[in-house]
Specification:
Largest sheet: none
Distance between the termini: 49 Å
Shape: globular
Structural class: mainly alpha
Order of helices and strands: HHHHHHH
Number of strands: 0
Amino acid sequence: MTNHVHLILDPREQVANLGKLMKRLAGRQTRYVNHKENRTGSLWEGRYKSSPVETDTYLLACNRYVELNPVKAGMVEHAKDYEWSSYRQKVGLEPETWIDLDPSYLGLANNEEERKEGYMDYINQLSVESETQLIQQALQRGQLTGTSRFVEQVENRLGRRIEHRGPGRPRREAK
């Protein structure tokens, strides 16, 4: 994208490594662009935003959101036309050289050809507006992308409550 990047990453059990990766990525990209364009200063405005994703329910939806982002932005006509996406590799237009195939993708079919076709069909389906809104809000607020059951499971694992709050200070209750 012209002003941001989407990555879908699995930090496995080492969640803290996600922050380290993003710090290193930002540093290297900034040095590269600054050297190439003979400039100084930071490249990105703020810290990265992340949203843990409920794999079974929302991972494919998040892939669709990311793959279609350049299409919605009017940068390309079709997801296959965007060179900085994993779409071309997942549907077999390029060899799989830099991506790991996630369980949701692998679960689309039992063989490679059907899987590629299934992914293409899934990405090109109209996404449900509520699904898109959930993903966008989760990204903006750094919240979980998933069902209420998923949120409850994460709350139990962390031992604390996670709530979806609107912007601003909570209103005082009338006495």
